[in-house]
Design goal:
By secondary structure, this protein is α+β, with helices and mostly antiparallel strands. It contains twelve helices and nine strands.
Length: about 400
C-alpha cells in the first residue's frame, strides 16, 4: 500500500526518491509558501479579478523568477527544480505560475538568451528580485496562433526605433516596467545589420511616450491574473534597445518553449490539488450510510485520476532530464504541454463531479482550477497548434500553410 505521504502528494511511482535534497528543499519551500501565504488570498483575488501584487516580493526570494538563468543575480538552478517550483505554484492557482512564467520564462529568458551584456546587466538582477516586472508582447488582436503575420512594425530613424502596433492577451501588461515587444522591421529601415521585414525583439520601458495599456475585462478564467492590451503609437526607443541575438520567429518561439516547459509541470500541480480535494471529500462525505469512497464508481474515478497524474509526472521527469542535458526539443515540449494540460483538465472535471454541488464553490479550488486550465489549454500555443506541431514531426508535412 502507498504511504500516507505518497497519497497526500500523490507519488505512486516514488519519484520523490529520485530527487536530490536540494530539489526537495526548493520544492517544499514553494509549497509551504503557497499554502501559508498565497492560498488564503487566492479565492478573493479570483473573485476580484486581480493579482495580489504584494505576493510578487514574496515570490522573488523563493527563486521562481529566472530560475535556471545563471549569473546576473539569478538563481541558476537546474531544470527539474524549476519544474517542481512551477508545479507548486500552480497547485495554488494558475495565476501564480503564470506570474513566474511571464517574468522568468518569457521576459527574462528573452533578455538572457538574446540580449547584450549591457541589457543583461541592467535588467536581469532587478527582474530576478522582483524589483522590476516584465511582460512579453507577441500575440496581436488579429494574430494569435500565426505570429509570423504580426502587424506591429519597427522603423529605424537615426538613433531610434519607432514602434507602431498592438498586442493583446499580455500578462503583466498593465503593471510591468519593461516590455519585450516583437515587431517586424520595415523594409525602408533595413540596413546591413538588420534584414528587411525580419521579426526582431525590442526592450521597451513601459513609461515610454506612445506606450499605453488597457486591462482586459470580463474574463471567466484566470481571473487572479491580470491580462492586458498594449498599444504602441509612434513609440520611440533608443537604438540600443533591440535584442541583438534574436532575428526571425526563432526568437519568440524559443522563449515560448521555456514557458511551455514550465506549464507542463505546473498543470500537474493543479491536477494534484484537485485529486487531493476529491480524495478527501470521498473519504469524509457519507451517503447511503457509508463514505463515498466505498462506492465502486468513486474508486474508479480516483484510480483514473491517479493514473493520469502519474503518467504526467513521469513525462515531466524525463523532459527535465532532456532539458538539463540541452537535448529537449520543441516537439518534446509541445507533447508534454499538450498531454499534461489535457490530463489536468480531465482530473479537474472528475474532481468537480466527485465534489457534487460543493465542487463549484471558489473556496474548494476545483472549479477555479478547472476554469483556469481552459486558459492554459489556449495560451503558449493552443491544443490544436501543439497537435499540428506533433503531426508535422510525425509526417514531415506541415499543415500550417
Amino acid at each position: 500500500m502507498p504511504s500516507d505521504e505518497a497519497l497526500q502528494n500523490l507519488d505512486l511511482y516514488q519519484l520523490d526518491d529520485l530527487l536530490t535534497q536540494s530539489q526537495r528543499d526548493h520544492r517544499d519551500r514553494v509549497r509551504t509558501w503557497v499554502e501559508s501565504k498565497a492560498a488564503p488570498l487566492l479565492p478573493t483575488a479570483y473573485e476580484d479579478d486581480g493579482f495580489p501584487k504584494e505576493l510578487i516580493q514574496q515570490m522573488a526570494p523563493l527563486g521562481v523568477f529566472g530560475t535556471t538563468i545563471r549569473g546576473y543575480g539569478c538563481p541558476g538552478l537546474d531544470a527539474l527544480t524549476y519544474g517542481l517550483m512551477m508545479q507548486e505554484l500552480e497547485a495554488g492557482d494558475s495565476a501564480l505560475r503564470t506570474c513566474a512564467s511571464v517574468q522568468g520564462a518569457l521576459a527574462m529568458s528573452a533578455i538572457a538568451i538574446f540580449g547584450s551584456e549591457q541589457q543583461k546587466d541592467h535588467w536581469l538582477p532587478e527582474l530576478a528580485k522582483g524589483q522590476q516586472l516584465g511582460c512579453f508582447g507577441l500575440t496581436e488582436p488579429n494574430h494569435g496562433s500565426d505570429p509570423g503575420s504580426m502587424e506591429t512594425s519597427a522603423q529605424r530613424q537615426g538613433d531610434q526605433w519607432i514602434l507602431n502596433g498592438a498586442k493583446t492577451w499580455i500578462g503583466h501588461a498593465t503593471f510591468a516596467d519593461i516590455a519585450v515587444i516583437w515587431a517586424k522591421v520595415q523594409k525602408d529601415s533595413a540596413d546591413k545589420n538588420h534584414n528587411a521585414a525580419a521579426i526582431r525583439g525590442f526592450l521597451v520601458p513601459t513609461n515610454t511616450e506612445g506606450f499605453s495599456t488597457t486591462k482586459i475585462q470580463g474574463k471567466l478564467s484566470l481571473r487572479a491574473s491580470v491580462t492586458g492590451e498594449i498599444q504602441l503609437t509612434n513609440c520611440a526607443i533608443d537604438a540600443s534597445s533591440i535584442l541583438p541575438g534574436a532575428e526571425g520567429l526563432d526568437g519568440p518561439l524559443t522563449c515560448l518553449d521555456q514557458a511551455r516547459y514550465g506549464i507542463a509541470f505546473g498543470v500537474v500541480g493543479a491536477a494534484q490539488s484537485c485529486f487531493k480535494q476529491a480524495r478527501t471529500h470521498a473519504l469524509e462525505r457519507f451517503q447511503f450510510g457509508k463514505p463515498l469512497a466505498r462506492f465502486q464508481l468513486v474508486q474508479a474515478k480516483l484510480a483514473d485520476m491517479a493514473t493520469k497524474i502519474t503518467q504526467a509526472q513521469v513525462t515531466c521527469l524525463r523532459l527535465s532530464q532532456l532539458k538539463e542535458e540541452g537535448r529537449a526539443t520543441t516537439v518534446q515540449i509541445s507533447l508534454a504541454k499538450r498531454a499534461n494540460v489535457e490530463i489536468a483538465l480531465d482530473v479537474a472535471r472528475q474532481a468537480r463531479d466527485l465534489l457534487g454541488g460543493s465542487g463549484i464553490l471558489n473556496e474548494n479550488q476545483v472549479m477555479r482550477h478547472l476554469c483556469n486550465l481552459e486558459s492554459v489549454r489556449t495560451y503558449e500555443g493552443t491544443h490544436d497548434i501543439h497537435t499540428l506541431i506533433l503531426g508535422r514531426s510525425l509526417t514531415n508535412i506541415s499543415a500550417f500553410r
